[in-house]
Design brief:
The chain is α/β, with parallel strands linked by helices and 211 residues long. Helix content is 34%, strand content 19%. The protein has seven helices and ten strands. The strands form two sheets. The chain has an eight-stranded mixed sheet, with helices on both faces. The chain has a two-stranded antiparallel ribbon with strand order 6-7. The longest helix has 16 residues. The N and C termini lie far apart (33 Å). The structure holds NADP nicotinamide-adenine-dinucleotide phosphate (NAP). NADP nicotinamide-adenine-dinucleotide phosphate (NAP) binds next to helix 1 and helix 4. NADP nicotinamide-adenine-dinucleotide phosphate binds next to helix 1 and helix 4.
Length: 211
């Protein structure tokens, strides 16, 4: 699959490497062509950089890995408001969080719903915003990982679940995109529990679903 990543930073580089190892072709784009080329080089032979306005046309799926503050600008340079993402699966990994408090920046809604409004016709799935990108490259992670995701388009949920499987994790679809705020708040919860000196994995009950 051709995975187009809008974003040129740490998450783009780490997810890009992990998916390249699974045989995917990775395309990197952002506001800076020079940084996109650097990041594509870090990923290796299965990656290339493109101008942001060309990303969608060359990608089967688009992954948003941009700082919240730069999200609207990045969507604009990728021509998402003009419909460049229409009909595409768009996986939103952003965290619209105040990292000092762990509280969401948006008073209502979610970053994923914002993308859905701005990126005309995109099929947005919230996913992969919780785990550190570097963790997808860590060969020592042995415990099973579940990535909770949400979205309104079944085909896009299936595509996202398959890509999460390629990272070695399982996807859990928790509902439609109206669940995105809940998922985004979990990232803040994790930050707050860590700040209080505890492992967030011990802060939720261990519940085995009925078979
Ligand atoms: N890193 C992780 O492990 C991780 C894990 C899960 C989720 N996330 C989320 O993924 C997103 C990216 O994280 P990151 O760690 O990759 O951040 P990062 O290394 O700081 O990279 C930020 C990216 O956003 C772009 N950006 C910043 N301001 C911009 C603007 N005004 N206009 C256009 N682009 C702009 C940067 O472009 P320039 O290089 O041109 O500034 C860069 O491509 C964040 O929302 C973060 O919360 C990160």
């Amino acid at each position: 699959m051709r995975i187009g990543i809008l974003g040129t930073g740490d998450l783009a580089a780490t997810l890009g490497q992990a998916w390249a190892r699974s045989g995917h072709h990775v395309i990197i784009a952002g506001r800076s062509q020079a940084r996109a080329e650097l990041t594509a080089n870090v990923i290796g032979d299965q990656a290339r950089a493109l101008a942001a306005e060309d990303l969608a046309a060359q990608s089967d799926v688009i992954v948003i890995a941009v700082a919240w503050e730069g999200l609207d600008n990045a969507l604009t340079v990728a021509q998402a408001p003009e419909g460049a993402f229409a009909g595409k699966t768009v996986i939103d990994c952003t965290n619209a969080l105040d990292f000092t408090t762990g509280l969401l920046i948006l008073s209502t809604g979610s970053a994923a719903q914002h993308i859905s409004h701005v990126a005309t016709g995109a099929h947005v799935v919230k996913a992969l915003h919780l785990y550190a990108g570097q963790s997808w490259l860590d060969p020592h992670v042995s415990q099973p990982r579940t990535v909770a995701i949400c979205g309104d388009d079944q085909r896009s949920l299936d595509t996202t679940s398959a890509l999460i499987g390629d990272l070695g994790a399982s996807a859990a679809v928790i509902g439609g995109l109206d669940h995105a705020r809940q998922l985004e708040d979990v990232a803040g919860f994790v930050i707050s529990v860590v700040a209080a000196g505890h492992n967030p994995a011990t802060a939720v009950p261990s519940v085995h679903p009925a078979a």
